């Protein structure tokens, strides 16, 4: 899962980044209004943590731009301003939650997970696909109630496919989602192929009721 943090306070940014990295998220950062706008237009994110007071412009203006452009980012406002007006404005502009600084990182994590569950799973924590169960909170995958051992990247790939059933996923989109924006500098996608190949073998060997199809020259598609 990939998260964009738009925050100009260095210590807060580093604290959030370090904590979320330890929880297995991929983190991208922007420290002002202009870089935040650029990021949301160039890349897709599972969740955006957005400060309101930014150098160069307001985080609320970023929300306005997202709404106008039809960009869905599962956004949580993180602000030092405990203002009812800002909360109402932010939520009206499409923010999913509002968290006032200072806050405990564990609470932030809980808010992020809640937003992701609401958007992707309709509030559920376990996604069932035929005989395959994915516990997003526990990072556990099982087939016929038997745990399937996956590494972190395999779990992230499976999760991405599972929340995009029957959609064509290009290798570029998959790589960017699982490995982050720095994938732009990669010479090739051999590491993507290797991880998907290993995942497909594990699913097949354990007789999972889902299939990750190879769409030649383009990418992949998960089907039931």
Keywords:
single chain, 224 residues, alpha/beta, Rossmann fold, Arc Repressor Mutant, subunit A, 2 domains, five-stranded parallel beta sheet, four-stranded antiparallel beta sheet, 8 helices, 14 strands
Distance between the termini: 23 Å
Q: What is the molecular shape?
A: globular
Beta-strand proportion = 15-25%
Could you tell me the radius of gyration in angstroms? 18 Å
CATH topology of the largest domain, by name, is Rossmann fold
Provide the CATH architecture of the largest domain: 3-Layer(aba) Sandwich
Mean of the pLDDT scores?
Answer: 88
E-strand count:
14
Strand order of the largest sheet: 2-1-3-6-7
* Low-confidence region ranges: none
Biggest sheet record = 5 strands, parallel
Structural commentary:
This protein has helices at 10-22, 33-42, 59-69, 84-92, 105-121, 152-162, 171-179, 190-205, and strands at residues 2-6, 26-30, 47-50, 53-54, 57-58, 75-79, 97-100, 126-129, 132-135, 140-143, 146-148, 169-170, 211-215, 219-223. It is an alpha/beta fold and 224 residues long. It folds into two domains: 2-121, Response regulator (Rossmann fold); 126-223, Winged helix-like DNA-binding domain superfamily/Winged helix DNA-binding domain (Arc Repressor Mutant, subunit A, Orthogonal Bundle), CATH 1.10.10.10. A five-stranded parallel beta sheet has the order 2-1-3-6-7, with helices on both faces. The protein is globular, with a radius of gyration of 18 Å.
């Amino acid at each position: 899962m990939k998260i964009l943090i738009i925050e100009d306070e260095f210590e807060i940014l580093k604290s959030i980044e370090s904590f979320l990295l330890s929880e297995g998220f991929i983190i991208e950062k922007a420290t002002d209004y202009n870089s935040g706008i650029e990021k949301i237009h160039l890349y897709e994110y599972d969740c955006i943590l957005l400060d309101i007071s930014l150098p160069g412009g307001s985080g609320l203006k970023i929300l306005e731009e997202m709404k106008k452009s039809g960009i869905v980012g599962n956004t949580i406002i993180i602000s030092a301003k405990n203002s009812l007006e800002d909360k109402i404005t932010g939520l009206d502009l499409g923010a999913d939650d509002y968290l006032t600084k200072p806050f405990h990182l564990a609470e932030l994590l809980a808010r992020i997970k809640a937003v992701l569950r609401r958007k992707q799973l309709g509030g559920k924590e376990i996604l069932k696909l035929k005989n395959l169960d994915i516990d997003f909170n526990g990072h556990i995958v099982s087939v016929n109630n038997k745990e399937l051992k996956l590494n972190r990247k395999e779990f992230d790939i499976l999760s991405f496919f599972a929340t995009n059933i029957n959609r064509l996923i290009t290798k570029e989109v998959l790589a960017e989602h699982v490995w982050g924006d720095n994938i732009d500098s990669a010479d090739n996608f051999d590491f993507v192929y290797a991880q998907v190949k290993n995942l497909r073998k594990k699913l097949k060997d354990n007789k999972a009721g889902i299939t990750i199809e190879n769409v030649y020259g383009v990418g992949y598609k998960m089907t039931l």
